[in-house]
Amino acid sequence: MKPQLSLLLLFLMGLPTAFSQEDARASQNGASSYITFSPLSALDAYAPRWRVGYVQPISSHWQVGVDLGYGNKGMALVSGNIGDAYRLCEIRPEVRYVLNPRARTIKYLSAELFYIDQANVFSNGDYEAENGDDFTYDRANYQRQKYGMHLKFGLFVDLGKRAGFNFYGGIGFRWRQSDYFDVENREGADIFREWYPSMYDREGHAFGPNPTLGAAFYYRL
C-alpha cells in the first residue's frame, strides 16, 4: 500500500475515536448519517470514475465522511481519452463543520484530503519527458498519482425529507507524479503542443493550486 494512502486511512480511522464522546449528543440532536453519489465524476473525459460516499455526524456541528471512487475501461461512460486499458482508484476523507444545524438550508465548511492512483495503456502516442524532450511510441504504460487537500464551502438543497443535492466548491493544493514506463519503440520527435495540453502529455512531478467544484446526490439513512 502506498504511504500516502496509508496516512489517509489512518487519518480517517482516527477521527471517530477523537470525537467518540460526541456520539450520544449527535443522536440526541436527531442528526442522521447519509450516503452520497457524485454523478459528475463519471463524465470526466480523462479520469472517469464512479464515486460514492458515507457521512456520519458526530455532534450537531461536526461530521466526518469518506468518498471512494473507482473506474475502469468497461465502466467508463466517456472513454475516448483513456487509452486501451484504464484503472483509477481514489479516497477522500473529509471533516465538516456545520455553521448552523437549525438553519433551513444547511451550510458547512470542510477540510478534505484526497489520493488518486491511475494507470493507463496507450498506443501510437507521444509525450514530453521530464527533461523537456519529446518522444513518440507504439505502446506505453502510464501511471499518475495525485494527492493533496481542499478547504471547501458547501450547502444542502433538499428535494424532500431524505434526499437532495450537496453543492460545494473550494480551493487547495495538489502534488502530482506522472510516469511513462515499458515504452515500446520510443523515438525522439519535434512535437507542437497546444497551449492547453492534456494531463497525459507530460511526464514528471508538479505542485500547485487545485480548485474543486461539484455536486453530489445524498440520501439520509
Automatic annotation (TrEMBL):
Give the range the annotation lists for the signal sequence: 1-20
Q: Which UniProt keywords apply?
A: Signal
Q: What is this protein called?
A: Outer membrane protein beta-barrel domain-containing protein
Q: To which species is this protein native?
A: Pseudozobellia thermophila
